[in-house]
Each structure stands twice: as C-alpha cells, then as structure tokens.
Amino acid sequence: MPTPERTSLEEIVEAAREILERDGLTRLTMQAVAQRVGVRAPSLYKRVRDRDDLIRLVTEATVRDLGDRLHAVAAGGDPRTRLAELVHALRAFARARPAGYHLVFANAPAPARPEVRALADAAAPVLQVAAELAGPAHAREAARTLTAWAHGFISMELAGAFNLGGDVDRAYEYGIALLAGAFTKPS
Predict the structure, then answer these.
(1) If we measure between CA atoms, which residue out of 124, 122, 127, 129 comes closest to residue 77?
(2) What is the DSSP string of 115-181?
C-alpha cells in the first residue's frame, strides 16, 4: 500500500466522488475511500478530519466542477440565450453526476457544508444573467427563482417523477422560455 504521503488530497476527494456516484452517500465511508486509494483508513485522517470533512471536500469539488461548467457558458450576447445555456448546463451536470448534484443542494450538517465562497463563485454566471434580465436590484431574486425552478424540475426528473406522459424535454424548454420572458428590468 502506498504511504499516506503518496496519496494526495485530490486523489482522496476524487475517489470519494466516484464512490458517491457509484454507491451513494451512505456508502461513502472513510474505509471505502481508503480501500479505493490503497491506504489504511487511519491514514486518511492525516489529510481529512472526519467523514463530515470528506463530504464537505466532495461537495466543494462538485460545486467547483459545476461552476466551471456554468462559467464556460459564453459571456456576452443575448442574456435570454445565456439563461437557457446555463440551465441546460445545470441539467447536463445533474444527469452526469446525480449524486453529487443532490449533495450540492442537500441540507448537510454545518461541518459538511461547502464554503459560501465556493457557492458564490459557482452562482456568479446565474447572478450575472439575472442582473442583465431583471436589473441589478432584482438579480438575487431572479437568480433564486431560476435556480429553484431548475432544481425542482431536475430533481423531479432524476427521481422519475414525471409519470403523466408528455415530452419532458419540451416541458423544460417551455419553462425556460417562460422564465426568460418573465425577467424584465423595471422601468
């Protein structure tokens, strides 16, 4: 087995993210991560305080990954188009990493919550487009409305809760169009 010095924090976090996606949060244990990176579980405590700290690190890595995808949406151009691109990027991320996506929005105990700075950085593109559409005075409210709608829709989709038929993709586009049209700068 490698010595703890040969196992980086990044390797530990990536192994934990893989376990989370494959086996779920309940099976994300220090022992499972240690086995994945090839060390004994006590060795992990030299890099990670405890399971809550591990979950926080996984959540922060997931938030950064999501933020990178949202920041990749082209700046400039029509804000309604960017709004659509942002919520499409959010949905694609949720489909690719459903357990991590749910972890980002989970009500975790304080020691397992990501730093507010990481969340703010990831949310910056959404706040920017919300400010362009609704005006700076209403940017936060518009961004929260957009995020709440998209998260609710995506969570229902991931849970298989759309059981009444119809085209779910078309419904998503319909919601995007409604929200994009609803955000207008006050005169």
Answers:
(1) 129
(2) PHHHHHHHHHHHHHHHHHHH-GGGHHHHHHHHHHHHHHHHHHHHTT---S-S-HHHHHHHHHHHHHH
Closest of 101, 112, 91 to residue 21, by C-alpha = 101
Q: Which tokens go with 151?
A: 């998260």
Give the count of alpha carbons within 13 A of 120, CB side only.
Answer: 3
- Burial string for 70-101 (b: 16+ CB within 10 Å, else e) reads beebeeeeebbebbbbbbebbbebbeebbbbb
> In this predicted model, what pLDDT tens digit does every residue of 72-100 receive, in sequence order?
987 788 999 999 999 999 999 999 999 99
Q: Specify the pTM.
A: 0.90
Largest interatomic CA distance in the chain:
66
Give the integer Cα–Cα distance in Å for 156 and 162.
7
- The answer to whether the beta carbons of residues 104 and 118 sit under 8 Å apart is no
The tens digit of pLDDT for each residue in 103-137 reads 999 888 888 888 999 999 999 999 999 999 999 99
State the alpha helices, DSSP H only, in 38-138: 41-44, 51-71, 79-96, 98-104, 116-134
**C-alpha R_g of the chain:** 19
Catalogue all structural domains in the chain, each as residue range(s) with its CATH number: 1-48 (1.10.10), 56-182 (1.10.357.10)
